Amino acid sequence: MVRPAFLITIDTEGDNLWQNHDKIDTRNAAFLPRFQSLCEKYGFKPTWLTNYEMAIDPAYIEFAKDVIARNQGEVGMHLHAWNSPPLYDLTGDDWRHKPYLIEYPEDVIRDKVVFMTELLEQTFQTKMLSHRAGRWAFNEYYASLLIELGYQVDCSVTPRVDWRQSPGDPNGQGGTDYRDFPRHAYFIDQQNIARPGSSPLLEVPMSIQYKYSSLMNGFKQGVDRLRGKKRGPSVNWLRPARGNLDKMKRVAEQSLAEGADYVEFMLHSSEFMPGGSPTFKHEADIDQLYADLEQLFDWLQSRTLGMTLAGYHRQFKDAR
Questions:
Q1: Banded pLDDT at 217 (limits 50, 70, 90)
Q2: Phi, psi at residue 300, to the nearest 5°?
């Protein structure tokens, strides 16, 4: 029996985009080889989901070309609409508001997706097969563009999470509501990305589990409503934060116990650099991150088989 896949997805983007509103630096490119080496130590192959500023950074280009040449990972596409060419002023201050790509006019969405795909394919001399939407915002039109351009895998869905309370365009409706989406991999229905269908695009949702029981989640949401707050159920992700090693293991354990044939990990490239994110501010935080990753990867090595998103697509398709 084939072991479940371990999918490492890295949103490869500029430094501390949570707080930088007027400039984008890419110093985090120098910190990525350490993580790549850790993945290779355990036989895992990360998928580097790459956006515009990293795709034109010489240090990252050299790093990613080497990963591809040695078949030790994959480069995919990630797109932040506010700074990805061709530029279009949606809000009057897009760098501050960081609007979702799906909030732009459809012709602008198309131009941006085509531009990024061509840039990545020309830079890295490889077909783009894998994708994650910037800020997790995805819809049917976006999916249709990926299918048209030959993408095989999307990993934008975050089951059990509702992003509508996270604003992009101040006059918009917020992000995508994924609460009722499948938690397993599925070929999407192009008319409704929330359900399986017959398109060639495989959706690989993030590994996310409820933090509390259904009863406790219901109670906490009721309290929030009385306080005038709108929040979804509390969840844990297979995603590092300070001191959450046990929670990450629990997410993986629960997912595998439910019969999942993969677990999906994510982090941002800037989180490997001290000060590159609000979470890991100091060198000591990075050292603790790597200590946790060593333990997580060692624990997963005997339970899973590392592969890229495109590699998982091949296995999933063959199994069907």
A1: low
A2: -80, -20
